[in-house]
Each structure stands twice: as structure tokens, then as C-alpha cells.
Write a structure and sequence with these properties.
It holds the Pfam family ELFV_dehydrog. The chain is an alpha/beta fold. It contains 42 helices and 25 strands. The longest helix has 32 residues. The N and C termini lie far apart (73 Å). 47% of the residues are buried.
């Protein structure tokens, strides 16, 4: 049987990469524990028990001997425990047997549960449990005060998961294994006793021994790969040379990939199988306990289990798995699942499903799997359906759309009521808890819907020489497969109300629209689904996305959405301060992603790429796992875009219902800027042909142009600020400004560095600093240059009316006498407070919809001599979606000059586009010479000049759009916020039309437009002819269309005359004719 030691190779196929033997000798792989003092200790234990008098003297010898000999407990137990502890365990075992006997007497020899206070074993089938006398229940634990060691012992029936009781394996996961790191790790040895707890019982004992690792070399590098240098001292002394060799190979494989390495070995002469799983520490949760549920489901039990940790951050779990003597006895009799298959077949399925459990070790549907009401695949599918329903079930319906179409869009009261109704409908109709409760009620519907899903995406082996179908395939063909009409009828017959029907109908909607998924890949690290976005209601989301991905991992949930085949946008990592914030973020996750992408689509009007955006919402208990979450998110997206329909040597591939090549381009956003290098390099390792252009904002050593270092987004934002000053004849030094987004962030720090105004307040994640007389600019620059939060502001440099309020502050008195009861609330609402009055507001950070129809009224008054003027005169949006459109319109009606995000902060996307253009234009050698930082830290002269050229393009595009918006506002009276959208829509629409006209076929015109659109530096370095050879044709068409469309709309506005485009193009033909006449 083949050992599956799997990794992703350069062409993203799967292969066996190590000649590890497939057959092992019938040896444990560890030096056996032998406790020399066992006999003497046994005598001392008996004497101790005799002194206590709890067991009749005539029975003491028998009870002690049973523990020491008949049970077959590993000697490690006796070596670790004291006489007193072992004696107490003997007495506990004796008491448990008495208790079991009493229960049998009380219940005529039959019992389904233990009496109060003694946990019971819940079997997979309670009917079968009643056929046996009451089980002897023993649950013993000892955890050291210094948390260095722990011992757990409990009665355990082979092949049975428990859903109540002490749950020691889950405790071990939570207390020791989940938190293991290079700094502090825990290893585990677990043994099942060879004998039973008494002559009349079939129950055995399971022992767990946990100990803190002591590294051979505590200072070893995390890049070290020699197992003897990164091992725990105890492991190194106990592991055989064969085990060290095996683990060494597993370790090397773990270090070359993102996900788990899964291997299986046969054992000479017996049916036992040894399963070895290697992975990086803290890349999954609760895997150890989840694996037990998995092999129990298939009628197997473990005789030994080991968890070994290594100082380079690798974890290796080894399970010694055996078939039950009567495999069918533990599985239920209701016919919903067959008896477990032979171990020779089930072990292969366990290997497949281990990768699924690695992705999602525990879900809210775990109990249905433990009780064998659902398989692991069905349970995880049900959880995915729950996540999907949570985002797309709470839709507003046709009634809301009709109401929205008739209200007065210029009436803030109407808009406020509509916004409140929208939030109420989404939050209250179907809560997450309500949806989950409905899904858990009907396992039969989950099974039917899963089969419908699997029939479309499970491909099995794609080898014609496959000897036998997998268990997954067999399960799908056991019963009649329902078509959609039959599933709908089954749902109608099964549920009891319309809400329940809607929940399961949403799962069917999910099935209909999944085009690709990595659900059945063995090497996945998170689950990803490419969805056809046709189900997204246009009443709520007016522009239909081109493509939509849903990604779910053990640390996060996320989306990726794009509006054009070739599209670009950042990946935003969203954190939640507490459970309440997480619930809000979860409910709004898709909305936030959609509107960020829509904003990006409008923002990208000047560049070839359309708009996209990705979001990663960290689970509430995984706020420190941003690196792991990002890596899993990216790897899972790559699963679906790199050769999805091709079959590799190990016969795995993805069913591709899309049937078209896809390329994704990712950029930096909140929380992800520092991960762009990894994503690009990982795409290269995965064999993505587009790896150089896969991410932007990379480090300079990879040829990237970091947005924050060069203030790319701020360059664009500040041009709008300067435009206002220029039009109104204002001096920057006299302008009072506040900003959200602090000196620790990209926009916040660069806004401080590029401006010369009088800043009154800065708000960031740590709190607020404000001074009505103006903050000390030198101190602000110090923080901005050091990328420090406002908590580091030297409060000695505040004026007498200034204050620094941090989010943890309580009941702080301000200089004017006002009491701040809660610093967090003060920070969150500062922009709405009386202290926020100023000339210019530049939001450089903050949560979406911080100002909406419900709170904008607090900004419309509070300034001026009579207090009736708006708090701000001018607003330039640096942060995305800080205002809702309703709020912008209300501010404009009150006289505020506001420029929205899609126009003002497009500098970053322009920089990214030009970064990609350079990568596409040059050979690898040219790119290395002209765009990549040298090993000595020096930057090529071309690179420095190219950055300056990018700055110039950003500033020029910002000036052109500013002038167009200002001019059209004066000419038409249309609000600037509306004009921003209309200009974007006009450019995007014209771009699409131009790309499919005969203009592109005009060679002279094509060359002239491309020469204008591309940076002169690239033209001088490479030449137009070579650029046109190297850059993909569709990308060149996009450059051609976007350049002409943006220049036309910026020049002629949103309502051009019938002859305007003719006049516009005539100028190009005149230039071409002049060049031809004077070559």
C-alpha cells in the first residue's frame, strides 16, 4: 500500500516525495517504558490502602495486582505517579465497580446513564448501550501547579466517542496542544490498557501523559531541519532510529508546504495501521480530539497515540489504529449509515477526511458527527451551508426594494427610516443562532443536500486503472440520488414552517451556484468555493459581480469578489474586539466586501484592471492568527485557479464547472500589507504563471513599490485637498483639520507628513489626541515617522485645552470639565462630538459606515457663531466607505464640500497597476536589474525614477478628476458625491465599449494611444514594439480602452454632445497625421 506523503509541487500536482517504507515491523517505534521499582512500589501501595481501610483487607492484594498486572497499563504511569496517587486510583477503581454494581441492582442490570455526579458514556447508538450492564466509570486527572505535567485516566470503550463527561482529549487540546509554540510546547503519550477494569467488564482504561518539552537546544533556529537538534530530550531518548528517520522525512515535508502531511504505514503480521500526521504548530485547532471522533466513526480504536513537538515549529501526531473485533457492533441500526468497512479500506478514507478535519476540526455540528447522525463530510458541508445561509438568507425581499424605489432619496428622514429598516430586517429575521438551530434539527435534509452537492463535485479517482471506488464514491451511490425537485419536495414534507424551508432552500441555492471547490482535495488547508454570483439579488447589489469566492478556515471566514475578469484589489483582515463586535462584523462581512469591491471598481477607472476586494474575518477567539489565516486564504484560492481540471499522478483533481482560466491579482489593505511578499513567492512555488503580478505592494527586494513607504494613496488624497485650497483661495497653514487613522497607519502617517495644516485631533485604534489650539506638529511627525499610535504622544506637549483619551480610560475629566465615562465609546464617536468641529476632515481610517443616515444629523450642526452650521466645511475621504451615500448627500445639502473615496484615494491602485505593468514589461533579468533592491540595500536608479513617474501619474489623474467633478458640479448642480459615481460609471462603460470597437484595429492609433498611456521610462527602456510583444493582448486592450475613456470623460463630462467623441478622436488622428508627415 502506498504511503501518502503529499506536497504541492511546482506544477501543483501531488506526488510521493520520499521513499519511506510502506511496511513497518511490529514494533512500537519507541523504547519501551520499564519501571525497575514497580514491585517495591506495588507493596507500598497495598500498605497505604490497608492503612486507609476503605477496601476490605482480603481484597486489597487482588485490586492492586489487577491495576499493576491485569490492566496492562504502561509503565510510564507507575514511573511518574507517587504511591499515594496510585493508591487513590486503586480505591477509585474499586469504588467505581461498587457503584456500577449498585446501579445494576437498582435497574435490574440495565442502565442508560450513570447516577448524578458520575459522567456517563454516550454511545453512537443508545439502543445498543442498553444491552450491557452499567459501565464502570473512572475519571481521574492530575495537573501540576506549574503546568509542566498532567496525567488523565478514564474508562474508555474501544471505538466509541463520548459527547458528555470530562472530555479529556478536548481539554488536552485546549490546555496544551493548541497553544504549543517554539517557546513553550507539550508532548503527549497515550496508551490503552491491555486488560479490562474487572473480570465481568469489557471496559478498558485510557491513559494520557502530558509533559512540557525540554529542547535539546533551546536557542535553535526556526529554520533548523535536523531532527536531533530540534527534538525534545525525552522524545530523543525514547524514539528508535527508525522512528527518528521517519519523523525526519515528515518534518522536511511539513516545512516545504502550507498544509498537513498525511502518511500511513502497514504493520507486519497484523491488521494495525499507523497513521502519521505532520503540520505546523498553531495552524489548526483541536485536531487531536477531532481525529478520535473520525476513526471511531469508521469502527477503529487506537492502542497508542503520540504527539511530538519540535523546536522549529512542527507537530507530528502518530496514531496506532486497530479494527474492532466486531466492527458492526458500535454503529447504529437505523440504516442511515452502513456498518464500518474493513480497516484496509476505511484507513484510506480516514486519510482523505483528516485533511477535511485539519481545515475545520470542530464545528457547531460536531455532535451530529460524534453521534454518527452525519459523516464528517456531511457535518462540514452542513456547517458551510450554515455560513452561506448566514450571509445570504437575510435578504430584504421584493417589498423592501419596492419601498426603496418610491421614497424620496433627497429626504434625510426617509433615508434614515429606510436605513434603520434595512438593518432591522437583516439582523432580526434570521439570527445566526436561529439558522444553526434549524440546520441541526434535520440531519436527513443535510444528508440529502450533501449528496446533491457531492454528485456535482466529487470526482473520485481519475485513473482508468483504479482498482476500486473510494468510500466517498460508494456512499454516494448507496441510495437513490434525489434531483432538485425531489429535494424541494423532501424539504417541504420534513420542515414545519416557512422559515425552516427558507434555510434549507438557501443550501440548495448554494449547491446550484458552486462552480469549483477544493472540498475533496487531500492537500487543502481551508475550504474554498468559486460561486456563480447570479444568486446575489440586484435589488440590494445593483452591479452583479463577475466572480465570487467563499473561503472558510478554522481561524476565519472570507470572501473574494471581483467585477471584471481582470481585476485588482486589496485583501482586508478584519478583527473583532469582542463577541458583540464579531457578530456585527459577521453579519456585514459580505456587504462590506461587496461595497469595497464596488468602490474599487469605480476607483480603478484610470487603470486596465477592474475592481476587486477580499476580506478575511478572524474568528472571535483567533484574533492573533492573521498570518495563518492569510496564508490559508491565499493557498485555498490558488487551489481553484491553478489547473483546476487537470489530474495529477496521485489521481486528484477538481471538477471545473466554470471551464475558463482565471487569474486573481491581490493587493495590500488593512492588516495584510506585510504579507504580500509571501503570497507572491507562494504562488511561484505553487506553479502559478502569473506569480510576479499576483500581488502588489511587495517589498523592494521583489521589485514591489510599497504604498506606505512612498505614500501612494496619500498622494491622490492630498491633490483633492490642494484642489479645494486652490479653488477657494485658502492658505493651508490656516486650515484646522482632524483625521481618523493614526500615525501608525499608511494613510494616517503619510497624511501627517505631507500636510502643513493645523491639526486639531487624531483618532486611531488606541484612542484620541486633540487640542483646540492645534497639536504639536513636531510631535505628530515623530509619531508618523516611527509609525507609533497616539498612545505614544507626549502629553506634556499638549496645550492647556488639549487631552489624550485612550480606549481603556474611564471617568476622565477633560480640561473643559466634561467627564469621559468610557474611552472606547469616546474614541468611536469622536467624529460626531462637539470636539470634532473644524475646517477640514480627512478620514484615513475607521470602520465602514461610521457616518450614516442615522447619525449624520449630529454633524449638520454645532459650528458657527449660532451653532447651526455643519461641524466641517470640507471633507476628503481617504478611508473607504467611512460615509454612506445618504450621509454624503445630507452633508452636501448642508453646504459641505465633500469628495468621496472612489475619487480621492485611487493613488494606491494606480501605483499597483504600474507596478504590474513593469513586471509584465521586463524579462526576469531586466526586472532583477532595474526593479529589485540589491543585496546591499541599494535601489536601482531606474527604480527610483520609476517611483517618481508613478507619483506624477497619480497626481495627474487626481487633478484631472478633481477638475472634472468641480466643473460638472458648477455646470449641472449635481452633487459631487453623485458626480463621482457618474463619472466612474461613464468611464467604465465607455472603456468596455471601446475595447470591442474597430478603433483597436487601427495600428497607428493603437500605437499612439499606448505610447501616451505607458510611462516614458518603460518606453525608453524596453521599446513599444517589445512591450506589445510581452504584455498580454487583453491587458493591452484594457490599457487602450481605459486611457481613452478616462481622458474623454474628464474632458467632456458626463453629458457630452453627439459630436464630442468625434471631436475628441479627431485630435488623435491629427497627431498621427502630423507624425506621419514628419517621421
Amino acid at each position: 500500500m502506498t504511503v501518502l506523503e503529499l506536497t504541492k509541487t511546482s506544477n501543483d500536482t501531488l506526488r510521493t516525495i520520499s521513499p519511506v517504507p510502506t511496511m513497518l515491523k511490529n514494533e512500537s517505534g519507541y523504547v519501551e517504558n520499564i519501571f525497575e521499582g514497580k514491585a517495591d512500589q506495588m507493596i507500598k501501595v497495598a500498605n497505604y490502602i490497608k492503612e486507609k481501610g476503605f477496601i476490605p483487607e482480603s481484597l486489597i492484594e487482588n485490586e492492586v495486582a489487577w491495576l499493576y498486572s491485569n490492566l496492562g497499563i504502561d509503565d510510564q504511569y507507575f514511573a511518574l505517579e507517587s504511591v499515594e496517587v496510585i493508591a487513590k486510583h486503586v480505591m477509585a477503581l474499586y469504588g467505581a465497580k461498587i457503584n456500577a454494581y449498585i446501579r445494576d441492582e437498582d435497574k435490574e442490570g440495565y442502565a442508560s446513564s450513570s447516577p448524578s455526579g458520575i459522567p456517563s458514556e454516550h454511545h453512537h447508538n443508545n439502543q445498543h448501550q442498553h444491552q450491557h450492564p452499567s459501565m464502570v466509570d473512572i475519571n481521574l486527572k492530575r495537573e501540576s501547579d506549574d503546568n509542566d505535567r498532567a496525567v488523565y485516566i478514564h474508562t474508555s470503550k474501544p471505538g466509541v466517542s463520548t459527547v458528555v463527561g470530562p472530555q479529556y482529549e478536548k481539554r488536552i487540546d485546549t490546555r496544551y496542544l493548541n497553544i504549543s509554540s517554539r517557546r513553550c510546547s507539550y508532548r503527549l503519550e497515550s496508551y490503552r490498557s491491555l486488560g479490562t477494569v474487572s473480570y465481568s467488564s469489557t471496559t478498558q482504561l485510557r491513559c494520557y501523559f502530558v509533559s512540557r518539552c525540554q529542547w535539546v537546544d533551546p536557542d535553535v533556529s526556526e529554520t533548523e531541519t535536523d531532527i536531533k537538534k530540534v527534538s525534545d530530550i525525552t522524545f530523543l531518548s525514547r524514539a528508535t532510529e527508525k522512528t527518528l528517520d521517519l519523523y525526519q522525512k515528515v518534518m522536511l515535508n511539513v516545512l516545504t508546504r502550507t498544509g498537513p502531511v498525511i502518511e500511513m504505514f502497514e504493520i507486519e503480521g497484523i491488521r494495525q495501521k499507523r497513521l502519521v500526521i505532520g503540520y505546523r504548530q498553531q495552524t489548526t485547532l483541536n485536531l487531536f480530539s477531532a481525529l478520535s471522533d473520525l476513526y471511531h466513526y469508521y469502527g477503529l480504536f487506537s492502542s497508542r497515540k503520540y504527539v511530538e513537538q519540535f523546536a522549529n515549529g512542527v507537530t507530528i501526531i502518530t496514531l496506532y489504529l486497530n479494527p474492532l473485533m466486531d466492527s458492526g457492533s458500535n454503529h447504529h441500526l437505523d440504516g442511515s449509515h452502513p456498518p464500518p468497512p474493513p480497516i484496509e479500506l476505511s484507513i484510506l478514507q480516514i486519510m482523505k477526511e483528516t485533511s477535511l478535519i485539519y481545515c475545520l476540526p470542530t464545528t457547531p455540528l460536531q455532535s451530529l458527527f460524534q453521534e454518527a447522525k452525519l459523516s464528517v463530510q456531511e457535518a462540514i458541508y452542513g456547517y458551510v451551508g450554515f455560513v452561506f445561509a448566514g450571509h445570504f438568507l437575510n435578504r430584504l425581499g421584493s417589498e423592501f426594494v419596492s419601498l426603496a424605489s418610491i421614497v424620496d432619496q433627497n429626504n434625510p428622514v426617509h433615508l434614515d427610516v429606510l436605513a434603520r429598516l434595512k438593518k432591522r430586517l437583516r439582523q432580526d429575521t434570521f439570527t445566526r443562532e436561529y439558522v444553526l438551530d434549524i440546520i441541526k434539527r434535520y440531519p436527513v435534509l443535510i444528508r440529502a443536500l450533501y449528496v446533491n452537492f457531492a454528485m456535482a463535485h466529487y470526482i473520485g479517482s481519475c485513473s482508468e486503472n483504479s482498482l476500486q471506488p473510494s468510500l466517498s464514491f460508494q456512499r454516494l451511490h448507496m441510495n437513490h440520488v434525489l434531483n432538485e425537485d425531489e429535494i424541494i419536495e423532501l424539504i417541504r414534507r420534513t420542515v414545519v414552517n416557512n422559515h425552516e424551508y427558507m434555510v434549507f432552500e438557501s443550501l440548495l441555492t448554494f449547491n446550484r451556484h458552486v462552480l469549483k471547490t477544493n472540498f475533496y482535495l487531500q492537500t487543502k488547508v481551508a475550504l474554498s468555493f468559486r460561486l456563480d454570483p447570479a444568486f446575489v439579488p440586484q435589488g440590494e447589489y445593483p452591479i452583479r459581480p463577475f466572480g465570487l469566492f467563499l473561503v472558510i478556515g478554522s481561524e476565519f471566514k472570507g470572501f473574494h469578489l471581483r467585477f471584471r475578469d481582470i481585476a485588482r484589489g486589496g485583501i482586508r483582515i478584519i478583527r473583532s474586539r469582542n463577541s458583540e463586535a464579531y457578530s456585527i462584523n459577521f453579519r456585514s462581512l459580505f456587504d462590506e466586501n461587496y461595497w469595497l469591491a464596488a468602490t474599487q471598481q469605480r476607483k480603478n477607472k484610470d487603470i486596465p484592471e477592474g475592481g476587486s476586494k477580499g476580506t478575511i474575518l478572524l474568528n472571535v477567539d483567533q484574533q492573533e492568527k492573521s498570518v495563518v489565516a492569510f496564508q490559508k486564504y491565499v493557498d485555498s484560492l490558488l487551489d481553484l485557479v491553478i489547473n483546476p481540471g487537470k489530474c495529477g499522478p496521485t489521481n486528484e483533481r477538481i471538477v471545473d464547472h466554470l471551464g475558463a482560466e482565471e487569474i486573481l491579482f491581490l493587493g495590500p489593505d488593512e492588516g495584510s500589507a506585510e504579507y504580500m511578499d509571501w503570497a507572491s513567492q507562494h504562488a511561484q512555488k505553487r506553479g502559478a504563471s502569473f506569480w510576479k503580478a499576483f500581488t502588489t505592494g511587495k517589498s523592494q527586494s521583489l521589485g514591489g513599490i510599497p504604498h506606505d513607504l512612498y505614500g501612494m494613496t496619500t498622494r491622490s488624497v492630498h491633490q483633492y485637498v490642494l484642489g479645494i485650497y486652490r479653488k477657494l483661495g485658502l492658505r493651508e497653514e490656516s486650515i484646522q483639520k482632524i483625521q481618523t487613522g493614526g500615525p501608525d497607519g499608511d494613510l494616517g502617517s503619510n497624511e501627517i507628513k505631507i500636510s502643513n495644516d493645523r491639526t486639531l485631533a487624531v483618532v486611531d485604534g488606541s484612542g484620541v489626541i486633540f487640542d483646540p489650539d492645534g497639536l504639536n506638529r513636531s510631535e505628530l511627525l515623530r509619531l508618523a515617522n516611527g509609525r507609533q499610535m497616539v498612545t505614544c504622544f507626549d502629553d506634556k506637549k499638549l496645550g492647556p485645552r488639549g487631552a489624550r483619551i485612550l480606549i481603556e480610560d474611564k471617568d476622565v475629566r477633560l480640561p473643559d470639565g466634561h467627564i469621559v465615562e468610557d474611552g472606547l465609546r469616546f474614541r468611536n464617536e469622536f467624529h460626531l462630538s462637539e470636539y470634532a468641529a473644524c475646517d477640514l476632515f480627512v478620514p484615513c481610517g475607521g470602520r465602514p459606515e461610521s457616518v450614516d443616515a442615522s447619525n449624520v444629523t449630529s454633524i449638520l450642526t454645532g459650528a458657527g457663531e449660532d451653532g447651526r452650521s455643519p461641524k466641517w466645511k470640507y471633507v476628503v475621504e481617504g478611508a473607504n466607505l467611512f460615509f454612506t451615500q445618504e450621509a454624503r448627500l445630507a452633508l452636501e445639502r448642508a453646504g459641505v464640500i465633500i469628495f468621496k473615496d472612489a475619487s480621492a484615494n485611487k493613488g494606491g491602485v494606480t501605483s499597483s497597476s504600474l507596478e504590474v505593468l513593469a513586471a509584465l514589461s521586463m524579462t526576469d533579468a531586466e526586472f532583477s536589474e532595474h526593479m529589485q533592491m540589491g543585496k546591499d540595500g541599494s535601489l536601482p536608479s531606474f527604480y527610483q525614477a520609476y517611483v517618481a513617474a508613478v507619483h506624477a501619474v497619480i497626481e495627474k489623474n487626481a487633478q484631472l478628476e478633481f477638475e472634472a467633478i468641480w466643473r460638472e458640479n458648477k455646470r449641472t448642480g449635481i452633487s459631487r458625491s453623485m458626480l463621482s459615481d457618474e463619472i466612474s460609471f461613464a468611464i467604465v462603460k465607455l472603456n468596455e465599449e471601446l475595447r470591442h470597437t474597430s478603433l483597436w484595429e487601427n495600428s497607428a492609433l493603437r500605437r499612439h494611444v499606448l505610447s501616451e498611456a505607458m510611462p516614458k521610462l518603460l518606453l525608453d527602456l524596453v521599446g513599444l514594439d517589445k512591450l506589445m510583444e510581452r504584455i498580454p493582448m487583453e491587458y493591452l486592450r484594457a490599457i487602450f480602452g481605459s486611457y481613452l475613456a478616462s481622458r474623454f470623460v474628464y474632458t467632456y463630462g458626463i453629458q457630452p454632445t453627439q459630436f464630442a467623441f468625434f471631436e475628441f478622436m479627431s485630435r488623435y488622428y491629427e497627431k498621427i497625421a502630423a507624425l506621419a508627415a514628419n517621421p
